[in-house]
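#struct-help
A.M.: can someone run this one for me? Single chain, 295 residues.
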Amino acid sequence: MDRKTAHACCFFDRIGAMTKILEISGLQYEYEKEQDILTLDNISFSVESGEWLAVVGQNGSGKSTMARLIDGLLEAKSGTVRIDGESLTSENVWDLRRKIGMVFQNPDNQFVGATVEDDVAFGLENQGIPRDEMLVRVEEALKQVNMLDFKTKEPARLSGGQKQRVAIAGVIAQRPEIIILDEATSMLDPTGRDEIMAVIHDIKKKYNLTVLSITHDLEEASQADRIMVLQKGELVQDTTPMKLFSEQENLIDFGLDLPFSSALAHDLRKRDFKLPSGYLTEDELVEVLLQNNLK
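D.P.: on it. Structure tokens below:
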């Protein structure tokens, strides 16, 4: 058993004993204007507490619709959403939504405060959090995303990456158990994307968050513990990033682009470079190339 296979086995052994914080069963949804076309068709899966699940697929595959169903922003045609063991209904949607923090593609759509600190405090005010505790949470959240020095600034004057950091601060200040990233890095340049993903890793570790990442970026998805592929509203793959990215034919069939490291490794193998089989991250590929060059 190689290192990566052993790591994957250990991970699934570990989450086997964890608690299922999210359970989706038979989820279906259709938009009124397309009565004969199901946007989501009989989707079922579960997510363990503390797990990072990435959901990928082409535009129109149903990724964002599924995220909105989980957060109670849309109502399913049929099926159930269970959050921390409780079925989501119209009666308890506001209570269960407190367990979920959602970061959208465009942070401007989430801003309501005149200043950064006002914006982060907004959700806490809606929850009736006492002012003293609210001030502490706002301070901690902005510090966690390295935006404390900007707390009196207007959100509209921030860069794209800074705006997304503030949006994330507003979510983590509410202390959710699940954070959903709905294409949260798609409007950022590569540097901004890397910075935001580093923030997500930090807050996941600090608060033991469960992360559901809706993305079309397979490099981002490669950082997850597990990855699901949606295609035309159906769940067609549920596996590890390592296994999915090792199956290049499947990625093409699903209409997905190869991650950069996979495409480069494929070209290098065609040129007789000796590389380990399976998926290699960018860091692992660089390490292997350096080792081969030093021999």
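A.M.: thanks! The radius of gyration is 20 Å.
D.P.: also worth noting: The first strand starts at residue 20 and ends at 29.
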